[in-house]
Amino acid sequence: MLARSLVFLLFFLPLALSARPLEFVPLGLAQGLDVKVATSVLVDHNGFLWVASREGLYRYDGYEATPMPTGRQGLPDHDIRALYEDRAGFLWVATNTSGLSRYDPRTNTFSHYRHQSADLHTLTHDSIYGMAEDAEGRLWAGSQIGLNRIDPVSGRVTRFRHDPAQPRALAHDYVYDVLAEPGGDGMWVATIGGGINRWQADSDGFDHFDLARLSGMPEEANSVFGLARRGDTTLFAGTRAGLIELDFARGTARAVDLGGDEPPVIPALQWGPEGRLWIATMGRGVLSYDPVSGDVESANPDPLGSDGQLPALPQLSLHFSGGKLLVATWGNGVYMARLQRREYGWLRAGEEAGQLRHHNVTAVMSSSERPLWVGSFGGGVQRLMSDGTFSSEPAQADDALYTDGVISLVERRSGQLLAGSNHGLWILDADGRHRLIGGNTGEGLGEGYVTSLLESDSAELWVGVGGSGLFRLPAGHSQFTGFTHHPDQADSLSGNYITALLQAGENLLLVGTRSSGLNLCRMTPWQCRRFGGDQGLAHHNVTVLYRDRRGAIWAGTDGGGLHQFELGQDGTLRLLRRWSEVDGLLGPGIMGIVEDDDGSLWLSSRQGLTRLQPRTGALEHHVAESGLPVTHFNARAASRDRHHLYFGGIGGLITIPAGTAMTQPDASPVRLVDISRAAEGNAIHTQPAMALDSLELDWGEMLSVSFAALDFAKAPHQYQYRLQPTEAWQSLGPRRELTLLELSPGSYRLSVRGRDVFGRWGESPALFLNVVPPLWMTTWFRGLGVSLLLAAGFALHHYRMRGLQRRNRMLEHLRAQRERALEKAEVSGRRLSQAHAGLRNLTARLQSAKEEQRQQISRELHDELGQNLTAAKISLQRVARATSAEDQQQRVDESVSMLDHMIAQVRNISLSLRPPLLDDVGLIEALKVHLGSVQDRTGVDIGLHVDGGIVEVSRDVRTTIFRLVQEAVSNALRHARCRRITVALEGRSTGVCLSVQDDGCGFDVNQVWERVLRGEHLGLLGLLERARSAGGELKFDAAPGRGCRISATIPL
């Protein structure tokens, strides 16, 4: 077995892994880059391709070629000779007839340098060629007549011309190319007719190198078109006489043998990968030269003009960038070849023996111990032999096995090979015999394409047929048992078009369908559980099922990407993760799955191959741009053995060595291309965005941004964007334009990332957006507005608060009034109650006083007057009975005396009820008599003081004043225990003021007043009511131990 494997490797690997030449493809023809004579190509520091041509200057982003304008706002000439980008990022454009122009990508403007014969500090000529920048940032530019050194700051030009009288002047005026020393302190100048000249900063002129003389070549060697520096002492020159190697330190030169009958004319040189010098020729395409070994190779040895080769035209310019070689051609535009091309084994169909019979490989089956079997759609079954060739059966050309469309293969443990085809199931025995089982052979197999085959651990054969369902052939049996979809049975298959089979565990079978999702079936007894969109399957078309070495189950779909499942111990299927285009897959369809030695998965699709590392999520794409010769792969046409991985597709079989290292090269640059904004009217203003780092927008202004992953590939890219570094990326799919509208005012950091054709994500430099708010959205305006609103709110609040406070004060006032009223009502109630009580008491006292008065009058009438009348009657009766006149007179006199006494008693009673002096002699005299009488009777000193005229008062006023004085004096005598009482009267125009003051014991006015209200102090109450009844007022001024003063004012 080891010897067989070695033989296989010896024969197979050279076929599969031999290096292939560069494949050149025309660039940008369908995207507007349809130039003919391309004179120079350059990829700037942003990754954009600039193409100089006779038709103008173009910028190319892989999607669209944008011509740069000419005229007043652009270039002065369409015929462009050369391009150069300086360290500051300016693009210098050499024209054929209009001098030199400098393009500023930041402002999208040109500045121009022209020849003026009258100004020695302008260009020597308007036809410009090669350019280079020195250490001080000055640009050196060759022209058809002379060399120019331009100071970009001042615009001043220093001219260098050929002067036969000056030995160290330029050797020739026709300067075609300029090359700077590595440090920029010297310049190499290629001339047409004068060889090479060198200028050094510390020299007083140019050093001359006559290549024809130094190399022994004809004079054409001094017509130099291109220069390439190597090391410290060597310079290569592309000339009319081929490639010249100059050792400028020794002053020697030699012609480099590039093969061919004649040395090629070399317009351009460029150093490429692995230290090789790449050479553009006028008639032999592109060559590469190894200066160490002297090896010369053609970039593509095929005849010029053939597929994948450059046209049979002069190649004028070379440029390397990002693993790509760009070639400008005379007559057929720009071509590109990718250098970082992987080496794939490719087994193709052909007419020769040992080749595939058909180019469409639809089934592959291999294992570590068995040879590789390949089925093609139209070529039947073929086996890869130990010598690396395919079996060339059949002996009979009409054998259907070898012309059938084989779409599935399986080798049973018995060594029997089974091949599913579009006509049924082929059985291939080890002895070479074979037969076909179809839907009409009577063995129970349904009609349709046999899409999938599986031999279970129990040696049962399972056959999936497109349209007829699933069929089982137990070991040792010859009749198939069918399982189909039944609409009324939920545990039956979900559909009848079977596409994939996988034994998931003991007695468990996974069944994929074309239109009905996935089924997890128990083989004995038969019962299925469906797994569709509701369970996480992203698409109903299951194309492939696979189980890796760790036991994870993988399902590929044609529309939903890749699914990873976990089979639980309870026999249930659980989705762990899904990969789709958003996650980096080439497309939504997965055709095949094969695990590599490192645990990564190779996924075949209709766009190429993807290698996925599930642990990290890392992706690596293999597509046409990476050299993959087949990109459209067929479902389930994938397998591996110990040494190789195999993938079948339209175009043949691809082989990849197992264990191939997974690389992660740098991603292609992603850049913003153009920015479009609304202009006046309905116009749209578009400007390049490549050099913009910030932009200011008005709120509500539309901004449209286009971008590109600059790998110049034809395959679609995937893009995402975000407006802040902390935000999640938002998918745009393959759309390469983003329109932003009505961004909220503020600052944003727009970033775009794109996935290139190789599956690598690159991110653009951020574009800072400042959205300027309108006046009403500015902070100060909003602050002012908020302040005004707050002020208005505060004013309104204050107004309302004032109103509320006013109403509150009113309510408080009303409440206070209410409380006062309640208090007054309560006091009045108490007073009323007291008054009622006092009134009742007073009434009782009045009744009692009346009764006492009556009793007193009655007693006086009865006891005094009655007895006196009785005595007078008896005395008068005795007069009648008197016997003598003397006795009679005596009796009469006694009677008269009694009558006088009764008259006096009646007068006293009358005087006690109303003093007659009050009416007879007036108030003052009546008071004097009365007070004198009281003083005589009580012994208390009573004084009367009268001031003013109070004689002319009415009878009622006199009575009131007299009674007030009478009662006040009486009260003082009864209660005050005083020694002196002073009565004062004062007459006024409005009334009479009365004052009665004693020096007695005094009293508490409040306590006495409460008693008065209760009707207990009838004297004081009588005084008060008598004064009020007369319309006057009465006041008490007293305190315990300080006597009492009663004041009253009685109006006239």
Which tags fit this structure?
Methylamine Dehydrogenase, Chain H, disordered N terminus, 1052 residues, 70 strands, five-stranded mixed sheet, alpha+beta, Immunoglobulin-like
Topology, element by element:
Layout: H1 2-17, E1 25-26, E2 38-43, E3 49-53, E4 56-60, E5 65-67, E6 80-85, E7 91-95, E8 100-104, E9 109-113, E10 128-133, E11 139-143, E12 147-150, E13 157-160, E14 175-180, E15 186-191, E16 196-200, E17 206-209, H2 211-215, E18 224-230, E19 234-239, E20 242-247, E21 252-256, E22 268-271, E23 277-280, E24 286-289, E25 296-298, E26 315-321, E27 324-329, E28 334-338, E29 345-347, E30 361-365, E31 373-376, E32 380-383, E33 406-411, E34 417-421, E35 425-428, E36 434-437, E37 450-455, E38 461-465, E39 469-473, E40 481-483, E41 498-505, E42 508-513, E43 518-522, E44 527-531, E45 542-547, E46 553-557, E47 561-567, E48 573-579, E49 592-595, E50 601-604, E51 609-613, E52 618-622, E53 633-640, E54 644-649, E55 652-657, E56 670-678, E57 684-688, E58 694-698, E59 703-709, E60 718-722, E61 730-733, E62 737-740, E63 746-755, E64 761-763, E65 767-772, H3 779-881, H4 885-913, H5 917-920, H6 923-938, E66 941-947, H7 955-976, E67 980-987, E68 991-998, H8 1005-1013, H9 1018-1029, E69 1033-1038, E70 1044-1051
Helix pairs in contact: 3-4, 3-8, 6-7, 7-9
